[in-house]
Amino acid sequence: MNATGTDTDTDTDKVLVLPATADRCPFDPPSAYQQAAARAAVTRTELWDGSSCWLVTGHQEVRAVLADQRFSAEGHRPGFPFLTPGRRQLAIENPAFIRMDDPGHARLRRMLTTEFLVKRVEQLRPEIQRIVDEALDRMIALGSPADLVTDFALPVPSLVICLLLGVPYEDHEYFQQLSRTVLDTAASEQQVATAQGELRSYLADLAARKRRTPGDDIVSRLAVRDDLTLKEAASSALLLLIAGHETTANMTALSTLALLRNPAQAARLRSGEAEARTAIEELLRYLSIVQIGLPRAATADIDLGGTLIREGEGVLCMLSTANRDEEVFPDAATLDLDRDARRHLAFGFGVHQCLGQPLARAELQIALRTLFQRLPELRLAVGTEELTYRTTMVVHGVDALPVAW
Hints:
The chain is an alpha+beta fold. It has helices at about 30-40, 60-65, 85-95, 105-115, 120-140, 150-155, 155-165, 170-185, 190-210, 220-225, 230-260, 265-270, 275-285, 320, 355-375; strands at about 15, 40-45, 50-55, 70, 145, 295-300, 300-305, 305-310, 315, 380, 400-405. The strands form 3 sheets. A 6-stranded mixed β-sheet has the order 1-2-3-9-6-4, with helices on both faces. The N and C termini lie far apart (about 45 Å).
């Protein structure tokens, strides 16, 4: 895609009001974003409060923004685009390191880097496999049909992240309910503030207990640091807790649905013809479950592919349309588990790219391969028209996935 546009702000430049909702195939970006991408890789859009920002839809342009630290991730910057009042509340009141620029961002992120190194995650694979097998054992014992979301897709990453963080799994229903509110773009400022306040208090109390009696877990290692306050430890733990189960759970369920609707592709994964690592990269590209865009604010005048982004203007980087850019991924709307999709941006790009991506990859590889191998007759138990989707959530997914075997 070649960006076109000007630095003017007229009504004709504002091509849509954000956020747009999904209105077509659940695997595709909302049509409004696709239409904007078809016009130009950088376009003017309007936000809920009447302010404007730039929508960045092309693969090359999204990479350029996310790699350029003149585009700030800090929510207090002039022009920073908030999709809803609730998103503003979350960013301003509880700024985790994803809403910081360096050096503050680098300081906090470095404290967690070793926890998610590929070598460390590889050592966890037997434990992840055990969790996956036990979840499937329980689901199979309860009998067909089952809801794949509640019986498999959600418990697996929740158990894994609780194990790593040192969060009691018996509290999972509590923090999952609050996490959904935090991630719901339809939630009010007060609802988001209340939910994040409860989660922050819960994790601060947990960190305080672990500072007194540390264990072999991430919250303990954060809590005992002399250079980290309990509030900072709780904020980092909050980010990991929400991201660690919501994203992988939704990817697992939506990937299962995509494979059930593409039986030839599912058969290739089941038989091993399609290598699991390659298949997961293509599913990450194809589904791009973070569909609302990554926000940034320009701290200088910047030329972005021929469009002038002025200092104090906001941009939203649309990972979903970037991952469907035909110049990078030919026949992008087709799921092809043999595709080399390694250039996808599902985990972001640059210094803020997802810290936990090695863990997410391992969980998805093990969960999906094991699911389709152990249940070769897996099928939908309802018509696709009966399925409902998480259209107001930051992380896209399916509400429930009734399956039989």
